[in-house]
Specification:
The chain is α+β, with helices and mostly antiparallel strands. It is built from 19 helices and 29 strands. It has a 7-stranded mixed beta sheet, with helices on both faces. Strands 8-9-10-6-7-11 form a 6-stranded mixed beta sheet, with helices on one face. Strand 28 and strand 29 form a beta hairpin. The longest helix has about 40 residues. The chain is flat and about 120 Å long. It starts with a strand and ends with a strand.
C-alpha cells in the first residue's frame, strides 16, 4: 500500500478559489482545520492533515472535504481565472452560508410542525366520522398522468383526495365502489361507468381493484377501498390531506313500521343488501309455498324482468330478487283480466297472471335490452378514442380496440332491434332466448382476417363468424357498416401503415404544427388558390379543406402509395414531381412540408416561392440547418431569405415526435412580391435567339447581386429595356458551348477545342 503524506495544513490559504465542474460553480475556501486521516486516491492511500470548508457561489452551499479530495477543484480555479478573497471576506461568506443553512432548517422544522398540527386536527375531526363497525375506507383520488411513452415510464401523482365512505368489510366489491362514487359530484359519473372501468389488478406491481375510466395510466378520478390493517387506529390509516364527501345518514325507520310493502296479490316487497356483492336488492316474498310448476313459471317471469330466485341466507329472506324496485313491483302486481272483479282471498287469481305474463314480460324485456344498449355507448366511445400509434405494438393495440368497437356497435344495434321486436311481440323464434348482452354479443361476432404478421390485428370482413339459425336471424336485424364507412376504414388503415413504410423524406405533419401554419398563412375568407407541393398522405390538405372551404387545392406527389391515398381522398394531382412544375405566379397561398435531405427544403421553398402571387403568403416547415450552416447553398439561401423579408419561427423540440422523428424544425413565412417573377422572362427572345454574351443571367436575383441591387429593381428595369436577359442564350454556333458562372450567376460562351 502506498501511503503519502499530504501537504501541511497551512498549504491552502483561507480565501483560496475553487471550481466545481459538476455544480458549474465557483467557490472559496473559508476554513482550514487540521485533521489526521486517510483518503483512498488514484495512487493508493493518501494521508490527509487538513480539512477544508468551501462555500459555493450564490447558492452558499457548504462542502467539507479533505484537502486531497478538493485538490482538483483548487487546480481548476486557475483555469477559470477565479480570484481569491481576503480572510475577512471568507469569514463573512462562511457566516452568511451558516445563516442560510440555519434559516432553511428553521423553515423545514416550521413546515413539519404545521403539518403535524394539521394532521392532528384532521384526525380529531375524523374520529367522530368513522363508524365503529368500519373496517375499510372508500377513497377517490384525482390522478394526474405523468407517463412518458418514449422513455417507457408509466406513473402518475395524486393531486386531490376525497373520502367517500366506509365499509363493514375488506372485500373489493365494485357495486359498493359505484355506490360510494355517487357521494361526490365529480365522481358520480363512475357509478354508471361501463364495465371496462372496473380494473382488477391484484398482482405484483398491479394497481389493485379500482374504479376508473381510461385505465391505470390516464388522467381522471379513481375510486378504491383501503383497509384498516393491523392494530393501528383507523384515523392513522386515513389518507391525508383529504376532503370529506360522505353520504347523508339514512333516516331511521320507526320500530313499529312494517319491514316491507304488501301488494294486493299478498306478495311482500322488502329491501335488502346482497351479503356478498354489497348492492341493494328488492325481494318479493311469496305469502305461501307454491307448486313446482307455478314456481318455475314465476322464476321464468322473474328472469325475464332481470331478477332471480334468492335462497334464504342469515337475516335475508328467500324470494324473487331484483336490482330495481320497479321490476319487483311489476312482478308482484299482476294485472287482473278484464272480467275479474279483483282478488277474493288476498291473492290474484291464477288465470290472470298466466294470461298477462307474456305481454308484460315482452315489454319488460324490450325495456331491459334497450337500457343495455344505451349503457354500452361509453364503452364504444372508449374503444374508438384516439390512441398512440408510434410503435408497431401500439398500432396493433389501437387496431384491436377499433375491431372491438365495431363488434360492440353491432351488439348495440342487435339489442335495440331485439327490444323493438319484444315490444311489438314479433321476436323471431330463434332469438326468443337472447335476453342478455352476452348472448347478443356472441352472435354479433364477425369473421376477422389476418395476414399472419405478429403486429397485424386483422380486418373486419363484416360477415358473421358462425352460421347458425340464431346468427342469421340476428345479423338480418343489423345494418352493418355502410360502403362509405368501409372505404373510410380501409383508407385509415392505409394511412396508418405508412408510418412504418420507410418512405424517404416522408414525415406527416402533426395537427398542432398544421394549426400554427394556418394561423401564419392567414387564409382568405372566400375563394383562393392554394398549393401544397408535397401532398404526402394529405395531412395539411385535410385541415385546410375543413378550415377554408373556399380553397382551390393543387398538389403534387412522387410516391405511388401516397398518390393512391390522395386520390382516394378526392384530391386531384397536378403532377408527380413538383420540382419539374412550371414556375408561374398563380397561387395565393403555399403551405408545405418539404423533404430535408441534402438541402431539398431550400430548393423546394425557393421553387414554390416563384409560384406565389404578389401579396401571397408561403408557410413552410424547414430544417434549421439552412439558417446556420456555412456551405454555399445555405449562405446564398440566407441572403435570399433576408432580401425577401422572410420570417422564421422555431418549433418546440419534439414537434414531429409522433411522426417518428426527433429532427428539429422551424416554420418560415415569405410574402410574394416582384421577386416571385424572377424565373419568368420579361421580354421575348427574337426569332433568331439572343447572341451569347455577359448580358445573360441565371435569374433576376443573380442580376441584382451583380449590379449591387439586392431588391432587383434596377435589374428589372434593365430587363424591361432589353439591356440584359434572364436565362441561357437560346442559340450558339456549332463549335460553341454555353457555361454558367455559378458564383456570379452569369452565362458565358466557350469555344470547343
Amino acid at each position: 500500500m502506498n501511503i503519502e503524506t499530504a501537504i501541511r495544513p497551512d498549504s491552502v490559504a483561507i480565501g483560496a478559489p475553487a471550481y466545481h465542474p459538476a455544480y458549474s460553480s465557483s467557490g472559496h475556501v473559508v476554513q482550514v482545520e487540521a485533521c489526521n486521516g486517510f483518503t483512498i486516491g488514484a495512487s493508493g492511500m493518501v494521508r490527509d492533515r487538513s480539512q477544508l470548508t468551501i462555500v459555493w457561489g450564490e447558492s452558499l452551499q457548504i462542502t467539507e472535504v479533505p484537502e486531497s479530495a478538493a485538490r482538483s477543484w483548487l487546480d481548476l480555479a486557475a483555469r477559470y481565472r477565479i480570484e481569491p478573497i481576503s480572510a475577512e471576506q471568507a469569514a463573512a461568506l462562511l457566516a452568511a452560508a451558516k445563516a442560510k443553512k440555519a434559516d432553511a432548517a428553521r423553515q423545514m422544522n416550521e413546515a413539519y410542525e404545521q403539518g403535524r398540527i394539521a394532521r392532528a386536527a384532521f384526525e380529531a375531526d375524523a374520529a367522530s366520522k368513522i363508524p365503529a363497525w368500519a373496517k375499510a375506507v372508500i377513497v377517490a383520488e384525482l390522478i394526474e398522468d405523468q407517463s412518458d411513452s418514449m422513455t417507457d415510464y408509466y406513473g402518475g401523482k395524486t393531486v386531490r383526495t376525497v373520502i367517500l365512505g366506509f365499509s363493514k368489510h375488506t372485500r373489493d366489491l365494485f357495486p359498493e365502489l359505484r355506490q360510494a362514487a355517487r357521494n361526490f359530484a365529480e365522481t358520480a359519473a363512475l357509478a354508471d361507468a361501463p364495465e371496462t372501468a372496473e380494473n382488477r389488478q391484484k398482482w405484483s406491481m398491479g394497481g389493485g381493484y379500482f374504479l376508473k375510466v381510461g385505465g391505470r395510466y390516464s388522467n381522471g378520478w379513481k375510486v378504491s377501498k383501503q383497509s384498516f390493517y393491523g392494530n393501528r387506529e383507523p384515523v392513522k390509516s386515513l389518507p391525508f390531506p383529504a376532503d370529506w364527501h360522505l353520504a347523508a345518514p339514512k333516516a331511521e325507520t320507526a320500530p313499529a313500521a312494517a319491514p316491507g310493502v304488501v301488494t294486493p296479490a299478498g306478495i311482500r316487497i322488502e329491501e335488502h343488501t346482497h351479503t356478498k356483492k354489497g348492492f341493494q336488492m328488492f325481494i318479493c316474498i311469496m305469502p305461501e309455498r307454491v307448486e313446482r310448476d307455478e314456481f318455475n313459471r314465476l322464476r321464468e317471469l322473474a328472469e325475464t324482468l332481470g331478477g332471480w330466485y334468492s335462497k334464504p341466507w342469515g337475516k335475508t329472506p328467500g324470494g324473487f330478487a331484483f336490482k330495481k324496485r320497479d321490476a319487483a313491483e311489476t312482478f308482484a302486481n299482476p294485472e287482473p283480466s278484464p272480467n275479474d272483479d279483483g282478488p277474493k282471498d288476498g291473492r290474484a287469481p291464477e288465470a290472470a297472471p298466466r294470461a298477462e305474463a307474456p305481454a308484460r314480460a315482452s315489454v319488460a324485456t324490450g325495456d331491459k335490452l334497450r337500457a343495455m344498449a344505451d349503457a354500452m355507448q361509453g364503452e364504444i366511445d372508449h374503444k374508438f378514442r384516439d390512441r398512440l400509434t408510434n410503435t408497431p405494438k401500439r398500432q396493433r393495440e389501437a387496431d384491436s380496440a377499433r375491431l372491438d368497437g365495431y363488434w360492440l356497435q353491432r351488439t348495440q344495434q342487435a339489442l335495440r332491434a331485439l327490444a323493438a321486436h319484444h315490444n311489438a311481440g314479433t321476436v323471431p323464434p330463434e332469438l326468443r332466448g337472447v335476453t342478455s348482452k352476452k348472448a347478443a354479443h356472441d352472435l354479433a361476432r364477425s369473421e376477422i382476417v389476418r395476414n399472419g404478421g405478429y403486429y397485424d390485428a386483422g380486418y373486419d370482413t363484416g360477415k358473421p363468424a358462425t352460421d347458425t339459425p340464431a346468427t342469421r336471424a340476428l345479423w338480418a336485424m343489423i345494418a352493418g357498416q355502410s360502403e362509405a364507412d368501409k372505404q373510410a376504414e380501409a383508407l385509415r388503415r392505409k394511412v396508418q401503415a405508412l408510418q412504418f413504410a420507410n418512405i424517404p423524406g416522408y414525415f406527416p405533419t402533426p395537427r398542432a404544427v398544421i394549426d400554427q401554419m394556418i394561423d401564419l398563412a392567414d387564409l382568405p375568407a372566400g375563394e383562393f388558390d392554394m398549393l401544397e407541393p408535397e401532398g404526402g398522405s394529405g395531412a395539411i390538405l385535410d385541415v385546410v379543406k375543413d378550415t377554408a372551404p373556399g380553397a382551390k387545392l393543387t398538389t403534387y406527389e412522387r410516391h405511388f402509395s401516397l398518390r393512391e391515398i390522395l386520390t382516394a381522398k378526392g384530391y386531384a394531382l397536378a403532377g408527380s414531381d413538383f420540382m419539374e412544375a412550371e414556375t408561374a405566379p398563380r397561387f395565393d397561398r403555399v403551405l408545405m412540408n418539404p423533404p430535408f435531405e441534402n438541402g431539398q427544403d431550400i430548393d423546394h421553398v425557393r421553387h414554390a416561392f416563384k409560384m406565389l402571387r404578389d401579396g401571397g403568403r408561403l408557410v413552410a416547415v424547414m430544417s434549421p440547418g439552412p439558417f446556420f450552416r456555412q456551405d454555399r447553398k445555405a449562405t446564398e439561401f440566407r441572403t435570399w431569405f433576408d432580401d425577401c423579408g422572410g420570417e422564421k419561427y422555431d418549433l418546440p423540440p419534439g414537434s414531429f415526435k409522433q411522426s417518428g422523428t426527433g429532427t428539429a424544425t422551424v416554420l418560415v413565412v415569405l410574402v410574394g412580391d416582384e421577386l416571385a417573377k424572377e424565373a419568368t422572362p420579361v421580354s421575348t427572345a427574337p426569332a433568331g435567339g439572343y447572341r451569347i454574351g455577359t448580358s445573360h443571367f441565371e435569374s433576376l436575383e443573380a442580376a441584382g447581386r451583380y449590379y449591387g441591387d439586392p431588391r432587383g429593381s434596377t435589374a428589372a428595369d434593365k430587363v424591361a429595356e432589353g439591356e440584359i436577359h434572364i436565362g441561357p442564350p437560346s442559340t450558339c454556333e456549332p463549335d460553341e458551348t454555353v457555361t454558367l458562372n455559378r458564383e456570379e450567376g452569369r452565362y458565358f460562351i466557350e469555344r470547343k477545342s
